[in-house]
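User: My collaborator sent over this chain with a note saying "see what the structure looks like." That's all I know about it. Can you take a look?
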Amino acid sequence: MIKNFVVFIFILFYLSCLLPSYINAKPTLETKVQKLNEATRKNQGVVELDSSLYDEIISAPRNYSIAILLTALEPQINCVPCRDFDPEFRLVANGWLWSGNDPSRLYFGILDFKNGREIYARLNLNNAPTLFYFPPTIGPYAKKVFEQDRYDFNRRGFAAESVAAFLSHHLGTEVPVNRPLNYFAIFLSAFFILAALAVVKLMYPTIQSIILKKNIWTALSLVIILMMISGHMWNHIRGAPYITLNNGKVNYVAHGYSNQLGIESQIVALIYGVCALCVVSLIISVPKIEDKTKQRLGVYVSIGSYAPKLSRMASPAVRCPNCLDPALTVNLYKVQNQLSLFFIPIWRSKAKYLWICDRCKWTGLSRPEEQVREETELGQQNPPLPTWGLTRCTNCSMEINNVSGRMRYCPYCGSNISD
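Assistant: Without extra context I'll predict from the sequence alone. Here is the result:
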C-alpha cells in the first residue's frame, strides 16, 4: 500500500513538472492556420483579433501572409478615419476570399484598440488606423527580410484599390476589389437623364432659338477668350494664391519671374473686357444710334477708353544686378502716361526712366528727371543708372549700381566684384 502511494506521488510530481511546459508551448503552424481559416469563414474574410491572438498569428513560423489593421472604432474615441477605412479594408478582404485564389496564402485581421491596448503600447502607436503587412517566414513565398511593412495612408490614401495594389505588390498576385453596384445611384442617374431629355423635348423650340442666337455665342466666346488670355488656366494648374501680403501690405501683382496672383488675372481680364466692350460697341451698338450727336459721343467714349496707355521704349540691355547672375539682363524703359484722341497725343506726363529685369522683375530708379532730360538733350541715348549706391569695377572702371548690396558680378564685363 505504501509502495503504491509513493508511485502515485511520483506520478503527480512528474505531471506537475510537465504541465507548465505544456501550457507555455507555442502553437503549431497547423493550429494557427486552422484558427485563421475558421475565423475567416465566419466573418467574411476578416479575423477579429485580441492581444493574445495577435501575438500568436504573427509569431514564426508562418507559411502565410497577413495584413493586420490596428484601428479604434469605439464611439468614445471618435476616430473618423478609422470608421471611413473599415469598410474599405473589409471590401478588400471579401474580394480576396471570393477571388478563387488560395485563401490560406493571405489573411486579413483587425485589432481594435479596446481589445489590444497592450499591442498599441508595445508598438508606441498614438494614431489610427495603422496597417501592417507580415510576409511568410517559411514556404515557397518566404522572403529573406521578415520585417513587417507599414502602409502609408498619407501617400496612398484610404481607397480599397490602393490597399489592394499595396498587397498585390507584396504577394505577386492580383488582389481584386469587387465593389457592389450602387443601384440607388444608377436609378437616380437614369431618372435625371430621362427628365432632362423630356425637358429638352418639350422646350426644344425655345432652346433652338437660344442656341441659334449669334449674340449668345459672341458673349460666350468673349468670356472664354478673356479667361484664357488673362491667365485663369495658369492659376488653375499652378494653384496660385489670390493675393499676398508683404509687410502688412496687400500685393496685387506677383513679383519675380513666372509668378502670378489670382487677382492679377482678374485685373487683366477686366482691362481686356473693357477694351473688348469698346470694340463691340463700335461695331454693333454705335452704328444703330440714329441721333448723330449721340452717335458721335459714343464714338468718342469708345475710342477714349483706349487713350490712357503706358508707353515703354526699351534700350539696349545690361546685366541684372539682382539675379546674381551675369547672364541675366535688364532693360531701360521710358515710362510715360499719355492721353490720345483719335490716336493723336493731346497730353503727356513727365517721363520716368526705369531699369526693369524681364526675368526677376527687379526695378531700379533712374537719375532725377531734370538730369536725365539734360543728358538726353545732349545726345546721350541711354540714361545711366542712378548715382546713389554706385561702386566702381576694378576691371573695367565702370560705375555700377549696387543699391541692393547683393550684386556679385559687373554688368558690363562680368568680372567678380564681391571680393
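A starting point for your reply to your collaborator: The chain has 14 helices and 15 strands.
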